[in-house]
């Protein structure tokens, strides 16, 4: 859904809720990761693009000594409103309920400047829990909103902004995520995917705007909960594997070294986890190069290998994701398909010839009736939205 529609909805809700017009607004997009999964916290490469779908925050300063937020983004079964005292040294914000507000509170607590009282409305078109980074889009949208509401004393660059949002998620949502989601939500560019070196934090934009190629997202509508034990436990297994091999991170391990060291792993599950990461880092770089050369066949093959590795070695896929990937690959004109994001449900991403996309959607839905499919172009990263004159 276009950002201007979400923005209009947020403004209308703000007006009816607070009887005033908002004065500032910011938005942050969701993302789809094309390849490079579970590599960011291993100092590896990731290759996401920003979605056109985004979270929007509108609001204004308030004379009351409290921050009030209404969301029209959440599921109906969760509280839609929250109020809390402004963050201060004496009374720092703490995580609590409702859980969606923790992303916001975390951003306020990590904002490099004072945040006064405000009223705000949040609206989003990023599917929740779909592996399309609805949480990072909320954090980044909220940070962008705060930059308009309470400009920081010193200018803040994109990297520091993304890192502050990542810290918000670590501290307030208890999710030890890597940097991919916040980086792409801040730095996405229309028509481009972004190769991120998660060690040096260097980035490279790669054109993703061939008119004959479509990125198709298929939501299994199976909900995942990444703050559960699986994500942190995978992260720990990766760190322990690197340690066992005497390396700082799995980024420093070659495939040959890993194979040679296989017998050192008393736990072969740990070996397979490491094998996914080491091979995925290689695939990710190869895939970015393939895309630069418009070699979609190679890109697609790497996507499928990525999915198999996530399914068999890293074990973060699920039967529903495997089904939609398999269905997509049965269609002529689909170059590649894989699960995207943290896993355990959520979405798959497929690279499809434009003329095959309707056929692909029909085939996927015929085989998995719960699927929701949509195509997307690479969108822009976070930005302020100007509010028309009152
Ligand atoms: C989640 C995390 F937030 C990212 O940092 C990344 O690790 C991803 O899972 C898996 O690639 O989205």
Distinctive features:
390 residues, alpha+beta, Ribosomal Protein S5, domain 2, eight-stranded mixed β-sheet, 39% helix, binds 2-deoxy-2-fluoro-alpha-D-galactopyranose, kinase
Give an overview of the whole structure.
This is Galactokinase. With 390 residues, this protein is α+β, with helices and mostly antiparallel strands. The protein contains 11 helices and 12 strands. Helix 3 (134-149) crosses helix 4 (158-173) and helix 8 (268-292) runs antiparallel to helix 9 (296-312). The longest helix has 25 residues, at 268-292. It binds 2-deoxy-2-fluoro-alpha-D-galactopyranose. 2-deoxy-2-fluoro-alpha-D-galactopyranose (GAF) binds next to helix 5.
Q: Which stretches are poorly predicted, pLDDT < 50 over at least 5 residues?
A: none
| Overall pLDDT confidence | 95
Indicate the structural class: alpha+beta
N- and C-termini, Cα separation: 25 Å
Number of helices: 11
The hetero molecules present are: 2-deoxy-2-fluoro-alpha-D-galactopyranose
CATH top level assignment of one domain = Alpha Beta
Fill in the CATH topology of one domain: Ribosomal Protein S5, domain 2
Overall 3D shape:
globular
The amount of helix comes to 25-40%
By CATH, the architecture of one domain is named 2-Layer Sandwich
Number of strands: 12
Helix and strand sequence: HEEEEHEHHHEEEHHHHHEEHEE
């Amino acid at each position: 859904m276009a950002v201007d529609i979400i923005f209009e909805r947020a403004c209308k809700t703000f007006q009816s809720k607070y009887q005033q017009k908002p004065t500032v607004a910011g938005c942050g997009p969701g993302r789809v990761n094309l390849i490079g999964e579970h590599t960011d916290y291993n100092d590896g490469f990731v290759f996401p693009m920003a979605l056109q779908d985004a979270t929007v925050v509108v609001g204004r300063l308030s004379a009351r000594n409290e921050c009030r937020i209404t969301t029209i983004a959440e599921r109906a079964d969760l509280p839609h409103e929250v109020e809390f005292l402004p963050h201060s040294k004496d009374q720092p914000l703490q995580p609590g309920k409702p859980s969606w507000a923790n992303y916001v509170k975390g951003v306020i607590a990590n904002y490099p400047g004072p945040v006064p009282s405000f009223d705000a409305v949040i609206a989003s078109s990023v599917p929740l829990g779909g592996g399309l980074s609805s949480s990072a889009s909320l954090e980044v949208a909220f940070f962008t909103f705060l930059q308009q509401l309470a400009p920081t004393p010193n200018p803040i660059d994109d990297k520091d902004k993304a890192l502050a949002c990542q810290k918000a998620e670590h501290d307030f949502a208890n999710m030890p995520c890597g940097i991919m989601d916040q980086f792409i939500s801040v730095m996405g560019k229309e028509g481009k995917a972004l190769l991120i070196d998660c060690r040096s934090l260097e980035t490279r934009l790669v054109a993703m705007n061939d008119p004959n190629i479509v990125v198709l997202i298929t939501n299994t509508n199976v909900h995942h909960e990444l703050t559960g034990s699986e994500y942190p436990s995978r992260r720990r297994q990766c760190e322990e594997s690197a340690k066992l091999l005497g390396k700082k991170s799995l980024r420093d391990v070659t495939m040959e070294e890993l194979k040679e060291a296989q017998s050192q792993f008393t736990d072969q599950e740990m070996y397979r986890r490491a094998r996914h990461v080491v091979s995925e880092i290689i695939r990710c770089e190869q895939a970015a190069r393939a895309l630069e050369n418009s070699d979609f066949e190679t890109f697609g093959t790497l996507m499928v290998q990525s999915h198999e590795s996530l399914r068999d070695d890293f074990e973060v896929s699920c039967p529903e994701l495997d089904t939609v990937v398999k269905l997509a690959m049965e269609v002529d004109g689909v170059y590649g398909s894989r699960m995207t994001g943290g896993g355990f449900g959520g979405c798959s991403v497929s690279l499809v010839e434009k003329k095959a996309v309707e056929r692909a959607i029909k085939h996927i839905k015929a085989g998995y009736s719960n699927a929701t499919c949509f195509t997307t172009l690479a969108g822009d990263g976070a930005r302020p939205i100007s509010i028309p004159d009152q």
